[in-house]
């Protein structure tokens, strides 16, 4: 089945508030387009060092109540760093605790700051060990890694090829740490977009059949005349750029961003209608013994067919997980066509 | 001898017209700057599935009459797809038929949608087998591949290194299929230019000593006030960009594009005069026992000499294949200098 | 100790003037911000073929007098070319002569036009042999290579990984030769910036722990209304772009460029104050048993600490080599804080 990966929303798992699980609770109880496809309770950079233990406790405490009703997938981000054993040791303990106590409510684990392929293999080994100790089925927990160090970028191709023989299911860009590691300086407040990296990330994840997410957009709000506005336009620019180059989903830091990115990464009505029309015409042609047909000037054959089928499969996956989203976006006839059309 | 590779013109080998070989005939009988350096009778995406057999028949039928007079090289594009055995089987049959029936009129075969290096090796093997069966000399037919899939981009370096031990002679970018395979969506009608890929393509083909072509430019015409114009400016922008980054030649979909790209990829009068002057001064200096000379502020030595010599070799190759082109572009004195200057 | 690599200034080692060592002398006696971190007496492209021998003589003659007082490091650029044995033979002789006669005054050697990893290994071997013959300690002389050929770009990752087991200490971009080798043509006078290459250069050198320099900026002056001006703005744009993407230092062709690039690649007062404040707060937090602290909205922990510490280490290295530069840039209190703060 097509898996949804439109949004990767991090939620600090413990914050210095009366309810330290405030953001975790908010993510787990989100509704409609605000529900991220991947909810990532953040035990790493989003949580202060003095609150790491409480962060793990919060995840262990909240998941049994909320995970069964949550419509997305859940993958906590633990501590890890290719160049610091103390981080890897704390991360290993966090993975063990999570797998052991709430493993059945998790889809996977996110490892930040991985290095070369050997370090990614080591993280996969830690997860496999924890899974086995917890009595979970082999492969029950998949993993994603944040691409944010020079050695990981250097080994990107090997890391993606590793996915074909392992539980590695996704890569996520981490531009802040990446820029710092390369020694980049934001001289006029602008960080590079790292176009070469994004192109390679889209290519290698596509070749490996795993998902790719873009990096966080942290200018959440901007001010004008003393009033603070949600920066919808800036975020849309980034998300649309990611969609244009084939990055599957976008990082969200806020429910507003989640709702926005979920919509941008969902086929629109026109796009769906256009692709359905082509599939229907191709199905007719095949019944009449022809191997291809031209619809609105574009040839549809076995090869191009796959692209149109992908649109339909995505819509079916969204409908399966979030019927309220498809009900809002498409009229009844269009949705019915998407659900019933025959796919080769 | 320097081989010409300014233009790669695809011509559908069969179209639903009274004369189904209309575009093939047009390409084979083109004259002057409209003659492509590589003419590519297209049996793949340009030809409808129901007309594939007729497309092969057309090539087999037309080449004996026209190929001997045709001033460019001829390489049909057959069907192929790294992820679909049915395409590879059809392509194998097409290669056999072409090599067996008109092999002596062909320079090579173009394979689309190749995957990783193993798939490129497989295509090379199919061509070698067909060549032997047809009784052609070993290596009589070379091959080019279209770079348009994620695994081929991932293995670009290995594919180019394979060229040094094989019949692989060129790579051609295929942006439409490439963008679709990566899942890129043209949200506002714009497809990415894939700058990272183009840079790598120029580098790896240069390192391997094979030729590189850019992708097709499909906005052939634009409309203004109800009138349709040939989009010369848009195509020139793309071709000049390709020339700037060292892509050897450009894809053409139309004789007008061929004429335009042939001119842009040909040294201009000023460029030729400038490089000849440097070579002549260097030759004089060498006769006087000096290893270098400064001309118009630029030092010319054995190393830089090669660049200037390339300009002259290209002009000689054009003059050899298309004397009408050099006659049109250069005055007699300049051309005579290019043909007679001594090259080390 | 942090090594300084803000500037890579080439100085032709012999020019057709009364004093053929004019530019070499000027570099060796430069003062203040005009002192390059790397001074590169150029025996390669900056020196005419007929003056190569005199160029080597000049270096051998001047270094004993000036090198002991010179505040930067000295690495001559010798002849070399992966595709021409004559260049490699001349370069080998030049390395031998330099190591034998003035080896104790050199920090290393710069090899241009290297090819694939095997060619880089060969250059390293030549240097090792010369070092041994000269009776210098093993590793006394390090090496840098100019990245300016297609095969070197193709093997960039392997070349940088070689650094971890060798004397290779830096890579420098050479855009003019690189563009020529790829066959790029400056159709409208503009050369590509080669963004993909620069991104990869920054990444791979960071992963290997070696330094990276950008390419030369040759539009040193521009004219307006008949008057020639130093092109400070154009050079600043290039140097700042390099700093933004993590290229460590910039190529200089002139003392004015050296002074400018040294300043841009030096932490500013505000940057230093900001990072010191974070380190001081983190040190306080650690003394009180906390592992992290939030300063001006940014969390400082062991991981982010490294970035702030780098700023201080760079300032200490500059103060050590160039006390006049730190005295000019920072007020006494700020400098004192930078020199005395405790670094973990």
From TrEMBL, chains A, B, C:
Gene Ontology molecular function, alphabetical: lyase activity
Q: Which domain of life is it from?
A: Archaea
Q: Give coiled-coil spans as residue ranges.
A: none
Claim: Transferase is one of the keywords in the record: no
Lyase found in the keyword field? yes
**Swiss-Prot/TrEMBL cofactor(s):** Mg(2+)
Q: Name the Gene3D superfamilies for this protein.
A: Phosphoenolpyruvate-binding domains (3.20.20.60)
| Annotated HpcH/HpaI aldolase/citrate lyase domain residues | 34-255
InterPro entries associated with the record? Aldolase/citrate-lyase_domain, Pyrv/PenolPyrv_kinase-like_dom, Pyrv_kinase-like_dom_sf
UniProt keyword annotations, A-Z: Lyase, Magnesium, Metal-binding
- What PANTHER family does this protein's entry cite? CITRATE LYASE SUBUNIT BETA, LYASE BETA SUBUNIT, PUTATIVE (AFU_ORTHOLOGUE AFUA_4G13030)-RELATED
What is this protein called in UniProt? Aldolase/citrate lyase family protein
Q: What is the lineage of its organism?
A: Archaea, Methanobacteriati, Methanobacteriota, Stenosarchaea group, Halobacteria
